[in-house]
Amino acid sequence: MPFTITKSIPADERWTRVCDLRQGATYTFKASGKWTDWYIKKSANGYESPWLQPVAKCKIMPDKPWFVLVGAIDKDKATAFVIGESLKSWTAPRDGILYCCANDIPWMYWNNRGAVELTCTEL
Question: Whole-model pTM?
Answer without folding.
Answer: 0.97
